[in-house]
Design a protein that fits this description.
By secondary structure, this protein is α+β, with helices and mostly antiparallel strands. The protein contains 15 helices and eight strands. The strands form two sheets. Strands 1, 2, 5, 6, 7 and 8 form a six-stranded antiparallel beta sheet that branches. A two-stranded antiparallel sheet has the order 3-4. Strand 3 and strand 4 form a beta hairpin. The longest helix has 37 residues.
Length: 578
């Protein structure tokens, strides 16, 4: 879904429309717009030069698309660009009573309730009349507000001179007013060389504080999915993926029916369910996107005299990519379930599962202190330092401080007393104390897990043993190896060993004690070393504790008995020596 061509296409478009300077003023481009005058200079300069790089010409390479423009000779402009603005009404903000006589106009920040729906200016063309929003199009989340569709809209002409005269006319008749809060410039491109659509949105926000904040969105997406032979190979992989999805869903359903409530006690089973849900969401999104592209793409390309709204398709296609990314991430996490054949990897996963409770407790304490410092930084430096301008920015700034990326000079300049105190105490408590406590928790748990493995604890799932078992089964089927003994043969041999022990003089108590110890051992191994459903550590009941105690006592007796025999043998050996 993502390839390097998308990045390079976005880079080319951003350099064309964002970095190109206004003629006669090398310091002014779209990124540096700070006034209405700069905005109109950009519209009449870099925007026109980018859109009308060459003369409009006839092209029939894409759905017999005619009268299109070439941008950098490689990208086709689809339809015509659109410019849209949203405004707020006058007297939408509250003014202090003593200052009302000084204020004739007051325009609050943009909200759907404050939006101005009345026609203004010349009230002749569409740019002076309000257009109702489309319910299917997504809202835009900007820096200072969330903006819906609709507004005062006009499309550019296919003639460069007509478009320039249009901009001059709008500027002379004050199309941008004090009530303007945002202006969108939308257009779409297609690059046939790499079969990519580039949907571009340039945004200029006019906050209530004054000035202009610019932002942009470049979506390079592959809306025409199946064109080349490689694309059809991908389609076959998608079909195979759906088949595997059905198979795995059936297997998990059988496990749920078999183990019932015990199935949900394993974290890995929850991960399996999460992956299945994400996979079904991904398939649903894929089907939805393909249907929408099939229905809308042809209609958008039929009429090249109007604006082709590809933003809706790019928006949902981007969400589809995001869901795929999350699904792939959890699929990689699932690999931890199958790496227990390696002792080191098994210790790592066991360490993380064992210390989760301690980490949760530590995280509560950590974030209490962390958020306290974030609130302190926001209140003290928020009005002067960009990194602390919002509470969210303060939180991310503190994470950057922990990683060594900080602007101490800005903090110190904002407050010469609290700035250094904030910085020094934050570094001491968070970096030197809390982070080292976190490492101590991990290290202590790892030592415990390592000690458990040193005394014979086995991983929950051993891939090496599974491969060895499969290898032995294959050799047995090929008759290259004798089959292993079954349970009946093992029990028969066990009975033979009992008879042999009686013939060799062992008393009945010793034989019964050995049989009881064997039963305890098998029961404990089944309880604590089972890999099907049980977790690493299970609670021990009173009966199980009694059996463990008796098992330990019998082992101690056996150890004492073996020690006595060993001493007796050693004494006999010492007497035989000259």
């Amino acid at each position: 879904m993502v390839n390097p061509h998308m990045y390079y296409l976005n880079k080319v478009m951003s350099s064309l429309f964002l970095d190109t300077s206004v003629p006669g003023d090398e310091r002014t481009n779209f990124k540096s717009i700070r006034s209405i005058t700069d905005f109109w200079k950009f519209m009449e300069g870099p925007l026109l030069e980018g859109l009308y790089w060459d003369e409009w010409y006839t092209n029939k390479t894409l759905y017999d698309l005619k009268n299109t423009s070439r941008i950098y000779y490689e990208n086709i402009l689809l339809g015509v660009p659109r410019v849209r603005q949203l405004k707020v009404r006058n007297n939408t903000c509250k003014v202090y009573s003593s200052l009302q006589s000084l204020m004739n106009e007051c325009y609050d920040r943009y909200t759907s309730k404050n939006e101005d729906l009345a026609d203004f200016g010349l009230k002749v063309e569409t740019e002076w009349k309000y257009a109702t929003p489309d319910s299917t199009s997504p809202w835009h989340w900007g820096f200072v507000g969330v903006y819906r569709n609709g507004g005062f809209i006009f499309t550019l002409s296919k003639s460069k001179s007509e478009t320039k005269n249009k901009f001059i006319n709008l500027q002379l008749n004050s199309w941008i007013t004090r009530g303007t809060r945002v202006i969108f410039i939308d257009f779409s491109l297609y690059n046939a060389n790499v079969n990519l659509f580039c949907i571009i949105r340039l945004v200029a926000e006019f906050p209530a504080t004054g000035g202009i904040i610019t932002s942009w969105q470049f979506y390079s997406v592959k809306l025409l999915r199946y064109v080349s032979y490689y694309d059809y190979i991908i389609a076959s992989c998608e079909i195979t993926f759906c088949i595997f999805l059905i198979v795995f869903t059936t297997q998990e359903a059988q496990k749920v029916r078999e183990f019932k409530s015990a199935y949900f006690k394993s974290v890995w089973n929850w991960l399996e369910l999460l992956l299945l849900v994400l996979c079904f969401v991904t398939v649903s999104f894929n089907i939805y996107c393909n249907i929408q592209i099939f229905l809308l793409l042809g209609d958008l390309l039929k009429n090249t005299e109007k604006y082709s709204d590809f933003y809706f398709l790019a928006y949902w296609h981007t969400y589809y990519n995001n869901i795929i990314a999350v699904t792939i991430f959890f699929a990689w996490i699932k690999i931890f379930k199958f790496i227990s054949f390696n002792k080191t990897m098994s210790q790592l996963s066991s360490t993380l599962s064992c210390c989760i409770k301690d980490i949760v407790g530590f995280a509560i304490m950590f974030f209490i202190i962390f958020f306290a410092y974030a609130q302190l930084g926001f209140l003290v430096f928020g009005s002067q330092v960009d990194d602390f301008s919002t509470f969210q920015n303060a939180i991310f700034t503190q994470f950057r401080i922990v990683l060594g990326d900080f602007n101490f000079a800005g903090i110190q300049q904002a407050n010469r007393i609290l700035g250094p105190i904030y910085f020094i105490t934050f570094i001491f408590f968070v970096f030197f104390v809390l982070l080292n406590m976190f490492l101590a928790i991990i290290n202590d748990t790892y030592s415990e897990v390592k000690a458990d493995y040193s005394i014979g604890r086995r991983p929950d799932f051993e891939l090496g043993k599974m491969i060895k078992k499969s290898y032995n089964n294959a050799l047995e089927k090929l008759r290259l190896k004798k089959p292993e003994e079954g349970e009946d043969e093992k029990s028969a041999k066990s009975g033979d060993l009992v008879e042999r022990a009686r013939r060799e003089g062992f008393d009945e108590n010793e034989i019964q004690s050995a049989k009881q110890m064997k039963k305890w051992k098998e029961r404990l191994e089944k309880k604590y070393y089972s890999a099907e459903i049980q977790d690493d550590y299970q609670p021990v009941t009173q009966q199980e504790f009694r059996e463990l105690f008796l098992y330990a006592v019998e082992l101690e007796k056996e150890l004492h008995y073996v020690s006595l025999k060993l001493n007796r043998v050693m004494r006999k050996i010492s007497t035989l020596q000259p």
